[in-house]
Amino acid sequence: MKKELIAPCGMNCGICKYYYREKNRCPGCRGGDENKSKSVRDCIIINCDVIKKNHAEFCFDCSSIPCKRLKNLDKRYRTKYHMSMLDNLACIKEKGIDSFLEKETQKWTCPQCGGTVSCHGGMCLQCGFEKFSN
Q: What is the value of pTM for the model shown?
């Protein structure tokens, strides 16, 4: 887990399946635009005027937190992907980025092979272990 892979919204791009794909690998939200999908390039949060104007590192630096877009994103990820952007941001703000990265490493490391479990599907990208299967 790397600090530069944590997006302003609190998304850990290091657990995104698109970061690990072999062809057209996404560099993460903070990376260059090459290989990013249109939806990531056009993301309202990454392109937020407040974030850009204030050179803010994370959304918690904004007086409008949580904005409607962040609330919607958080709801979708809580429901589908076993994670919360708002919880991630609170952890980073309260405990610091290093503590957050340790927590993420524990949560998203495969217990079978030590690989990375993707939040998108809850499956280990190395061995296929389903961490969140019912």
A: 0.89
